[in-house]
Write a structure and sequence with these properties.
single chain, 291 residues, alpha+beta, 2 domains, 5-stranded mixed beta sheet, elongated, cilium, cell projection
């Protein structure tokens, strides 16, 4: 199996395992789905923290308004009480984005635990643990989040709530930073060793027939051009090399400071050493007699 260390720019994302005879297009499509899926899980976890603290999302026409403005305009959130969790507590959202009917502490813990579990499933730490990621892992993380919302909000979430929209795959990211992070599958491509994987080819056309290979690949869009090459050595290897060079330099400095005849002070260079050994005169200590 071919092992891909997938990066976006210089940042590690996940490990991906495939076969060398797989078509490039299928592999790119699968990697992009995992990459975008991880972004989706991250977005939901962020919104779920707000959901746990301040309840469901307000309708767009009510967001950012003060209570006085809402009364003056005679606006009402038809979803707040309908979707409120059992035993809810009032927790006003200072940002004016959510209704303020938050889950009680025990249900709030359910949401936060699910978010932590989901983030752990798609964490980048799996790269260091040498654990590969698949679309099933992303789906498992989404199921964890979906299950938690159903437990806490049995009546469901409003159709305009970001968590529900993400889980229903109808989210609108236009005009947000998140939209710039998502990769369009139709424009995605992979690069390795400064060369682009050509659509229509098989992986073997670029990697050879060796099915036991580990390759660092970078995912990007067609408009971004070639990504930067991977450094010859890692940061840790570079530090170790510099440390070794420094130690060598200090050793050479020490040798230069030593006198050329310093070896004459050594026992092996003493002409009378053998005589002293025969007469038992080695290792004799003395001190002056005090009167």
């Amino acid at each position: 199996m071919v092992l891909f260390h997938v990066k976006r720019g210089d940042e590690s994302q996940f490990l991906y395992q495939t076969e060398v005879e797989k078509p490039v297009d299928d592999v790119v499509k699968d990697i992009v789905a995992i990459f975008n899926g991880r972004l989706k899980v991250t977005r939901i976890c962020h919104e779920m923290e707000e959901l746990a603290d301040h309840g469901t999302f307000l309708p767009l026409e009510m967001q950012g308004l003060t209570e006085e403005q809402i009364k003056e305009l005679k606006l009402e959130d038809p979803w707040a009480n309908r979707c409120a969790p059992q035993g809810y507590v009032v927790a006003k959202d200072e940002m004016g984005r959510r209704c303020g009917l938050a889950p009680p502490p025990n249900l709030k813990a359910v949401l936060k635990k699910a978010a932590e579990t989901a983030k752990d499933i798609i964490s980048k730490k799996h790269v260091d643990l040498q654990e590969c990621m698949t679309q099933k892992d992303v789906a498992r993380a989404l199921d964890e989040l979906r299950g938690a919302t159903k437990i806490v909000f049995p009546a469901g979430l409003p159709p305009h709530d970001p968590v529900r929209m993400e889980l229903d795959n109808v989210e609108d990211l236009s005009g947000t930073q998140a939209a710039n992070e998502v990769i369009d599958p139709s424009r995605a491509c992979l690069w390795a060793c400064g060369k682009k994987f050509i659509s229509g080819n098989k992986l073997s056309d670029h990697l050879g027939k060796n099915d036991k290979t580990k390759v660092t690949v970078k995912i990007c869009t067609a408009s971004e051009g070639a990504p930067g090459r991977e450094p010859i050595m890692s940061e840790e290897e570079r530090k170790q090399l510099m440390l070794h060079a420094y130690r060598k330099q200090e050793e050479w400095k020490k040798l230069e400071l030593d006198d050329e005849d310093a070896y004459l002070d050594s026992k092996w260079a003493d002409k009378r050493n053998l005589k002293r050994q025969l007469n038992g005169l080695n290792d004799i200590s003395w001190k002056p007699i005090m009167k």
